[in-house]
């Protein structure tokens, strides 16, 4: 099938609708789904809410209670459904942390595999412009730390389509972290094309330094790579796509070629997932390693304060130069 131009939000909606058509046990529940979702991620390409096609028993509007939403979804999953849970933004998922961490993630292990929790927890991450500290967090490292959870962070429309298809077919609880500022970004999507979980994408080939990133931070990394190329530094840019399991083999193969690694993420640098990648590469190679992330501050509402929490292309260029000189 040929590629079709659509937005990041439309790509996810298409993956969900295709999965719902193929599997009557796939359902979606959360706040505002009946009207198509806060960001339009539950609308058809023509703009109609998916609830009009699948009805209120499969696209379920819920009360404003994240613990109730996730708790109900865990029960649905154990009973044979594949629920897609909409938590609007990752910041709100903290109201359901027990249900995610102690119920969804652990059930298969605690009961000897008698029960599976095949569910997708959509938790949009990242800075949301002018939305301040309680709507702008990147908490992927929290969930990557929890045994039993798969963690996904798509950066493109094609990956948001293909990775959501893979997540829905995985049979395990998947923390699915779309970015709050990517919804309207367009890209080429091949409908029905699955992107395997745990497989990174080589976004750019280079010989001088490997840069690893994911989600919206890839945009700044791509800008930085262009600037560095003009300065004679060739970047190999890897979009990790899945944070757990992460594609260790792809990263190590790239670093074996370049001898240098820079991990870049929008999340706070302290205890961010970049530390896991950097430590692994440092333990297994003799490469020079560095990581770049946000300062350990809440995201401010004022544009000047918000800018302090962003990792820019200029920051990435400077960090890469330190590695190659």
Offer a concise description of the structure.
With about 325 residues, the protein is α/β, with parallel strands linked by helices. It has helices at about 10-20, 50-55, 65-80, 90-95, 95-105, 105-110, 140-145, 155-170, 215-230, 250-260, 275-285, 305-310, 315-325, and strands at about 5, 25-30, 60, 80-85, 120, 150, 175, 185-190, 200-205, 210-215, 235-240, 240-245, 260-270, 290-295. About 35% of the residues lie in helices and about 20% in strands.
Strand content: 15-25%
- State the CATH architecture of the largest domain: 3-Layer(aba) Sandwich
Major sheet: 7 strands, mixed
Question: Between the first and last Cα atoms, what is the distance in angstroms?
Answer: 46 Å
- Characterize the overall form: globular
**Poorly predicted ranges (pLDDT <50, ≥5 residues)?**
none
Number of domains: 2
Considering DSSP H and I runs of 4 or more, what fraction of the residues is helical? Answer: 25-40%
The third-level CATH topology of the largest domain is Rossmann fold
CATH class division of the largest domain:
Alpha Beta
Strand order of the largest sheet: 3-2-4-5-7-6-12
By DSSP, the count of extended strands is 14
**Helix-strand makeup class:** alpha/beta
Tally of helical runs: 13
What integer is the average pLDDT?
97
Question: In CATH, what is the homologous superfamily of the largest domain?
Answer: Thiamin diphosphate (ThDP)-binding fold, Pyr/PP domains
Quaternary structure of the protein: single chain
Order of helices and strands: EHEHEHEHHHEHEHEEEEHEEHEHEHH
**What's the gyration radius in Å?**
19 Å
């Amino acid at each position: 099938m040929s590629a079709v131009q659509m937005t990041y939000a439309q790509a996810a909606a298409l993956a969900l609708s295709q999965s719902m058509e193929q599997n009557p046990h796939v359902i979606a529940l959360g706040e505002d789904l009946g009207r198509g979702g806060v960001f339009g991620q539950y609308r058809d390409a023509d703009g109609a809410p998916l609830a009009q096609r699948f009805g209120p028993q499969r696209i379920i509007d819920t009360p404003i209670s994240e613990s109730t939403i996730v708790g109900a979804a865990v029960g649905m999953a154990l009973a044979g459904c594949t629920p897609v849970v909409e938590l609007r933004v990752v910041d709100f998922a903290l109201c359901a942390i027990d249900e995610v961490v102690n119920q969804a993630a652990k059930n298969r292990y605690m009961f000897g595999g008698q029960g599976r929790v095949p569910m997708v927890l959509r938790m949009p991450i990242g800075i949301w412009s002018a939305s301040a500290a309680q709507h702008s967090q990147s908490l992927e490292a929290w969930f990557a730390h929890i045994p039993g959870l798969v963690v996904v962070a798509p950066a493109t429309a094609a990956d948001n389509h293909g990775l959501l298809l893979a997540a829905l077919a995985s049979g395990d609880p998947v923390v699915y972290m779309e970015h709050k500022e990517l919804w309207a970004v367009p890209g080429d999507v091949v409908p029905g094309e699955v992107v395997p979980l745990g497989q990174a994408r080589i976004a750019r080939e280079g010989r001088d330094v490997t840069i690893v990133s994911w989600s919206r931070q890839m945009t700044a990394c791509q800008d930085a790579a262009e600037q560095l190329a003009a300065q004679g530094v060739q970047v190999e840019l890897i979009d990790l796509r899945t944070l757990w399991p992460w594609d260790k083999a792809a990263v190590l193969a790239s670093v074996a070629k370049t001898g240098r690694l820079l991990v870049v993420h929008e999340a706070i640098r302290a205890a961010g997932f970049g530390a896991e990648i950097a430590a692994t590469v440092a333990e297994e190679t003799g490469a020079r390693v560095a990581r770049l992330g946000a300062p350990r501050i809440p995201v401010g509402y004022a544009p000047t304060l918000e800018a302090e929490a962003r990792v820019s292309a200029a920051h990435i260029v400077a960090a890469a130069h330190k590695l190659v000189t």
